[in-house]
């Protein structure tokens, strides 16, 4: 299968899941501004017209988009990895957390704060309105190792999003000690440590390319 990704973007969650599952995949880096696939210079929009990562092409040639859907596909494709959840309330809880991370944290909180073109007033409004979502998460994680009763694709996604606090100084993890402890603990997990290290190196290379082109 092929995973189209950009370094340290939300697509890193799928990389973590694939590493966790011990799955073979081709990792195809997409340059966000130009939508170019760096591996071969092709136009990424020919694969995903919206031009957003992650995008996954399965071994059967099916193209999947949207982080939550791709993560659930990986969990279902590799059931022995334990990344998914059993049918019933546990699977519904997994859906719940994937939705919460994607809407309330990823799009609702972090994307506006990370947007370099967003006015400071808009960022201040988002922080005032939406930081309570981290309060909720901090309270939930008290005494818990994972979002479910085991490591799942929801944890892969959450760690990926929390990792963005490195680039969002107004969101200081020390204010949410349970979230911070969760993040620091899971960063030591081999699949996550490997993904972060590899994508950080790719991110530095991306910055160097931009500097050279400026």
Automatic annotation (TrEMBL):
Keywords: Transferase. Coiled coil: none annotated. InterPro entries: Glutathione-S-Trfase_C-like (IPR010987), Glutathione-S-Trfase_C_sf (IPR036282), Glutathione_S-Trfase (IPR040079), Glutathione_S-Trfase_N (IPR004045), GST_C (IPR004046), Thioredoxin-like_sf (IPR036249). The keyword Hydrolase does not apply. The keyword Transferase applies. GO terms for molecular function: transferase activity. Residues 1-82 form the GST N-terminal domain. Pfam families: GST_C (PF00043), GST_N_2 (PF13409). Residues 87-214 form the GST C-terminal domain. Gene3D superfamilies: 1.20.1050.10, Glutaredoxin (3.40.30.10). PROSITE patterns: GST_CTER (PS50405), GST_NTER (PS50404). This is Glutathione S-transferase. The lineage of its organism: Bacteria, Pseudomonadati, Pseudomonadota, Alphaproteobacteria, Hyphomicrobiales.
